Amino acid sequence: MTHSLTDIEIARAADKKPIQEIGARLGIPDEHLLPFGHDKAKVSAEFIASLADRPKGHLVLVTAINPTPAGEGKTTTTVGLGDGLNAIGKSAAICIREASLGPCFGMKGGAAGGGYAQVVPMEDMNLHFTGDFHAITAAHNLLAAMIDNHIYWGNAQEIDIRRITFRRVMDINDRALRQIVCNLGGVANGFPREGGFDITVASEVMAILCLATDMADLERRLGDIIVGYRRDRSPVTCRDLKADGAMAVLLQQAMQPNLVQTLENNPAFVHGGPFANIAHGCNSVVATTTALKLADYVVTEAGFGADLGAEKFMDIKCRKAGLAPSAVVIVATVRALKMNGGVGKDGLGEENVTAVKKGCANLGRHIENLKQFGVPAVVAINHFVTDTDAEIEAIRDYVRGQGTEAILCRHWAEGSKGTEALATKVVQIVEQGAAQFAPLYPDDMPLFEKIECIAKRIYRADEVLADVKVRKQLRDWEAQGYGHLPICMAKTQYSFTTDPNKRGAPVGHSLPVREVRLSAGAGFVVVICGEIMTMPGLPKTPSAEAIHISAQGFIEGLF
Amino acid sequence: MTHSLTDIEIARAADKKPIQEIGARLGIPDEHLLPFGHDKAKVSAEFIASLADRPKGHLVLVTAINPTPAGEGKTTTTVGLGDGLNAIGKSAAICIREASLGPCFGMKGGAAGGGYAQVVPMEDMNLHFTGDFHAITAAHNLLAAMIDNHIYWGNAQEIDIRRITFRRVMDINDRALRQIVCNLGGVANGFPREGGFDITVASEVMAILCLATDMADLERRLGDIIVGYRRDRSPVTCRDLKADGAMAVLLQQAMQPNLVQTLENNPAFVHGGPFANIAHGCNSVVATTTALKLADYVVTEAGFGADLGAEKFMDIKCRKAGLAPSAVVIVATVRALKMNGGVGKDGLGEENVTAVKKGCANLGRHIENLKQFGVPAVVAINHFVTDTDAEIEAIRDYVRGQGTEAILCRHWAEGSKGTEALATKVVQIVEQGAAQFAPLYPDDMPLFEKIECIAKRIYRADEVLADVKVRKQLRDWEAQGYGHLPICMAKTQYSFTTDPNKRGAPVGHSLPVREVRLSAGAGFVVVICGEIMTMPGLPKTPSAEAIHISAQGFIEGLF
Questions:
Q1: Which of B17, B108, B471, B475 is catalytic?
Q2: Are A124 and A194 in the same domain?
Q3: Out of A466, B171, B359, B406, which residue is the most buried by the measure of CB atoms under 10 Å away?
Q4: Cα-based distances in Å from B392 to B99, B286, B387, B407, B419
Q5: Which one of A177, A250, A547 has the shortest CB-CB distance to B249?
Q6: To which protein family does this belong (chains A, B) (predicted)?
Q7: A51 is in which domain, residue-wise?
Q8: Angle subtended at Cα B252 by Cα B248 and Cα B256, rounded to the nearest 5 degrees
Q9: Which residue of the set A76, A237, A498, A534 is catalytic?
Q10: ipTM entry
Q11: In total, how many domains does chain B have?
């Protein structure tokens, strides 16, 4: 059941097909595939527009229990399930997010799945790929430059320089830029003010690109971005500064979804990558809807655990894009459930059925939660070599008690062979047609009640704590016409609560709201609970120190 | 002789061939062309390495008189001459620089030639193209982040935070970032210090990419970058921070030259774009040497007028890359010579033979200067519709008196038909084999004497003014082993002097050196004379305000 090769060795040994062949399987003609090298391509906007009247395939969401340092393998399972569906004769594509450069050179090392369930070309996907993130960085920073330039040349919009909310971005982990004073150096350089940089995945432009349905919608949303406020607190938008058209031009190519392939030569759309805390954490709407027109089954994933990722997928992405998932797969591992059951990292290697059983409470709550969206769920146990039969059986038993099924998956070691059972189950669920998707709350619920709804029904908090200023801000936005927007919760991914150390299925907690922000272009209200870092730092020994090109010409150290 | 279409209309109407066809004409097999869309490709490093033993073709430099607001058309003439050489039956390619995003959204509007002498696809070339500049920005800023991160985690190298010379970069005109204080916000964000951003084309990484011969040379040069100094004034390098390997990985794809085509479907390499003041202002060495292995004639250009651009082309690029140009074309226009002769912008429409004759002094000095490099020169008069026969004849007469020839070129209106005479003349010069290229000064001349040599022999200054600090700095660098480096002069492009208003062929001036900087990775000493802006600002009404996508899907306002 084990293999002796590393992820990158497997990826390098992949027998990749020319991307035109992958496109042809989906019915995309060569002239509508804009190649980037021989193994990546963008699907032309013209071709996508031509699909308007086609029926949509079935959408399957892969989500997970609350993440732990033990790892769950959500992307790996998404890839494995896509390959599994193809293996049992279905036409299936996967949709996942693009990777950010920042973490690759910091701590995490890049990846696009793992073992025998990967998307290739792995190196490119963890470097510049097709340049989408660079385009987003450029468009974002053009607007930022136009704000200061507007002020420099007379500030006709009367922007209050203390109330500029639009920061700059960079796709690098750089704590030095979190908080800066810019426009220094005298008259020629502008009016000194505080500012700062976020990482590109935290850009509202990223969220917009991932929620926009086409170029016209993109430009409209860009125009809606609020960059700051006047002294009278009225908002100044990107449109007021006439930056929306140029930003759309910079993003035109990036708006076209990227097509690559899995190790088993099945189509994979990899497009967009918004943060899963201050944004919604899903690949682009354009990629998902395009895939749904071209394949019968589309497997996609959402960031973090189901409390954050799946909730936002349902309440933001599906609601806004008119998508309705047919099934949900919740990924769990024996190791991660053990940690949710109180075991530390050092104890993961030993059999501990009691801890697994205890940790299942976390899984159980996610299963319950997902029922509230009307979509049937199945559990995928992503197999690790150290798992024992008794531990796996404990999960199966528990999940059976929750009225669904847990299926052991061995895609990491076996590729699609390891997910045929899961794929068969997913097809069965989809064909039963039991899904009756509905978002958690209606558009017209007051903003604060939406927050309470998520807090109580998903996090199981007793109450939401927010001071008068926050509540007033929400009421002001309602008065300004933003009351219909969905909520984008930004809290720790490690717990249902705001305390990352409270694993399992905690009760008796409250949800303190620290701050609320309006992403008027993306179209959601960000609710920040606890400390949220929008510009990571590099660790003491960044992985960049080891990244290099080997004498054989291979990129080493990136993974 | 006129045409009623704009540059962008002509570019859109181009009958582009698939890039594989353009590559095939140069003998590049499909698998060694990494496509970016259907009309752009990178030439693989593997293929380039396979050319090592091939003989080189002939290199022709296109340079110009001192630029004026009237425009000279250096790139247009480079494209026109390349097409002209192909039209008369020669195998010819052109090599030009990539465009920076910054100016496109600011003032200038992008371009890649003009009229019927253009390189296409024009839109892409003025936007993200193949992502090279974004890769340079990312690599540069990764090193910058690693400097502050190194200090944050204990500063083992003992970098003096007051003496960090390596700034950050962005490919946007953003005056707000010229001078900043970063690392604000307390302990978690580092040690507050002054810093700032330059535009990406001013990055030393850009200059390095354009001078490196291969990946190993690139990584070595990156390692040599001096990022700052310790309290004892000893330099701290990129290699000391272990950033060189990761930067090379980020630049691996960008190091491969880009192939596109002219309107007449002739091959054009467009690669790299260093500033022509604080850097050397030429396209990459890799592009030029690759083109020389694949074509019998390679036409390239250098930034600004011949006093800056051609001198650096000869003394930095050719010296370091072992290139020897066979001929030089000096571009002049009636209008620009009129301005050099004292006419203002408003008087350009009227015939003024006297002013043209007076302005010819500027042209004459460039002709004289170029003789010092041992390369025969010919003058191309880039025709404008308002030029009169008498004005053109005045130039011809003058140039004849300088021992060479001025040839009227109508490539803007007629494409290659308009440059056949110039092409024929260039071939004649090349076939005569009169060129005996030598740089202006030897490697082992002391740094200050090199500056004097350029100032006196090229700018015709009487003396170089530099205070004790500057002279001491140069001696220190000599002691540290940097004395063999060439000089990279940074001064105004509008005059032989440091005063942009002194047009023509001024005498009796001195060259004041304000500052010297060591680009140890690029391999030159930058000598700054007068104010040099390394981060432009946007104008009151940036062109970005008008840039948009039309209802027909065309990008408007970019040109």
A1: B108
A2: no
A3: B359
A4: 32, 38, 7, 9, 16
A5: A547
A6: Belongs to the formate--tetrahydrofolate ligase family.
A7: 7-130+254-432
A8: 135
A9: A76
A10: 0.96
A11: 3
